[in-house]
Each structure stands twice: as C-alpha cells, then as structure tokens.
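Box 3.1 A note on notation
Throughout this textbook, protein chains are presented in two layers. The first layer is the amino acid sequence; the second is a token string describing backbone geometry. Keep the layers aligned when reading.
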Amino acid sequence: MTMTSSAPRRVTVIGAGFGALSVVRELRRRDASLDITLIAPRAELHYLPGIIWIPSGLRTREQLVLPLANFFRRMRIKHVTGEVSGLRDGARVVDVTANGVVSEVRNDALVIASGGRFIKKLPGIEHAITPCEGIASAERIRDRLQQMQGGTIACGFAANPNEPSAVRGGPMFEFLFGIDEQLKREGRRDKFELVFFNPSSEPGNRLGPKAVRHLLNEMARRNIRTHLGHKLKSFEADKIVTEGGTFNADLILFMPGLTGNLWFDQTTLARSPGGLLKADAHCRVEGAEHVYVVGDSGSFPGPDWMPKQAHMADLQAAAAATNLLAELRGEAASATFKVELICIIDALDQGTLVWRTPQRNIILPSSRVFHWVKRAFERLYLRKYQ
C-alpha cells in the first residue's frame, strides 16, 4: 500500500533496540514511499538476551553487537546520531543533542521505542551490578567471577512499586542458574554459596504459577538458598539489608524495576503511575496526535503479567505500524496486539520453555533441546538486521 499525497510522509523512530527496529521493518514492508528517520546514539543493535552467556565465555561483546549500517541502507533509513532531549510543536519536532549541539528532526508521525530506565533509588545500589544495563555489566560479572576464589553470590530483582508490571526478572534466573552451572564446570561450586532474593514470596509469578513452582524446585535442586517475601532496604559492599533480615554477599546482581527515560520529563506526554508513557490498546500515546510507543517505554492496557521482552515489543511494533499508516491516510486506528509471553529460561546446557497467553500457561521441563533452540533463535533473529 502506498500513500497518495505528493510528498512522502515523514516518520521518526526513536531507539535502535528490538521495538524500534521491528517498527522500521513493519513500516517499510507496508509502505515503500515513507521517509523514515531513526534517532539513536549508535548505529548498532546490542542483542541483550545473549549477555547471559558472557560470564561463561559462551558469548563475547563482538558476537552481540551488530552494526546496522547495512540494514539502514537496505531499508532506506536516515540515521541521526544523538540523544533525544525533548519534543516540541505537539511532538512534530524532536530535539536531538550530539556533542553538545542541539538539532531538530521534524515528523508527521512519531514512534517512541527508546526502552526503559532502571530505578536506582535504593540506598547502596552502587554496590550491585545491574546485568541488563548492557554488555559492559555482563563483562563486569565475568571479570568478578574470574577474580573470586569463593564467597556468596546473591541474585535478585524487584519491580517498580508504582507499576508492578515494569520489571524484567527472567534474565536473573538465567544468570543464577548459569553461574551455578559455570562454577560446577570449573570445579569450584563447593567454594560458593548462591542466594536468590526477591521481595515477593512467589518470584517470577508473571511467568505463571507452574513456572514459580518449577523455579523454586530448581533452586532447591541446585542447592541455591532463597530469601523471599521481604522488602529490600539497602545494599552494602558485602551485605543485603531487608525488612526480614540481613545476609552477607560478596557479589550482588540486582535488577531494579523499570521507569521511563529521563527525557520524558521534558515533554507533556501522558505518563503512567510508574513513569512510563501511557498507551492505549492501539499503541498510541494517550492525548497525543500521531505519537506511538512500543516496548519498554510504554505502559499498555492488558493483564498484569504482560511481559517486558523483545517478543512483546515485536507484537506491539506491528500494531503501531499498521495504525500509524492508517491515521496518516485519514483512517481510524483499529489494530491491537496479542499479549503473549514466551521465553526459554537457559542454564548454559539446558533450558525450560515457558509460554503464557490469556487462555493458557504451559511450561515444558528442562531440556538440552531448548538451550540449542535459544541459540538458533539468536542466529535467525540477528540475520534480519545484517
């Protein structure tokens, strides 16, 4: 389908992660005439699901950073390098800062897919490594594990208190089980104690009740101690303080809840209680004309277990692209997205498949097959952007 106006419509996409790149693909597939601009600090995709394998050496930085120049050329995308610093004129102008210089990018429609920001308010948070902040964090974990001769390693996560669904806990189970397996392979597991901590007594409940039971049973089988159901108070260099007691930790891996990007504060866009962009069922930012959001940046209507993961961002991207183009043609936005959680919780040599929809929740027991499926998926996913 093509636009009928004489000049190509201008669409700006903010971000270069899963949601942003999926939007670009979906837009270009539906309309060859669009003038698409993407704003991001770098022309790179960082494949963050693969960072769980960095501590063991199964992956390196070079294998997880994909240059996007070829993809942009193939999709006929203009890349503007810089950080977004604000919006003007009803979001028709995006201010971009690069090397201290502010420039503007004009648009007829805007898609925000700039991800989320981890809440770093807990006292002593600097003593913890937040794995999903990026590849550098996973490299820090790798280096610390190599240096340690023994001790206690604590892994945990928490949610945004004002938006419980704004959490990314799945990777923490993978780091936990992966480190356990890695230490066994190195013949050092007996020198370490592993502890999993969480304010909830049912960690991972967004994966479903069956998954919670499986995860806790797996921790017991691996001799991983748990500290559950106690609100976190603070971190120290060698301990974790909760309302239910204090315990020692020589290495702390912690994933805080998610909130919106700082630059959201420089806009008038509608916000959720947790600080994300408030979206409707069609991925439109409420109260804003021709402004859409996908992925971790948004707060969407739906079940409280709606995941913050790449698969969900891809589903939202298809709906956003369809609706954006419809509105530019003067038609009503009608497309919605399917809510689906699907993940493989990996443990270096095996994985557990979890699938959840509003109708069903399935968990398939650990198998080496699922580990290799996860690796194959990575290869196929990255191929789209090479």
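The domain at 10-116+260-328 is CATH 3.50.50.60 (FAD/NAD(P)-binding domain). The CA atoms of residues 210 and 363 lie 7 Å apart.
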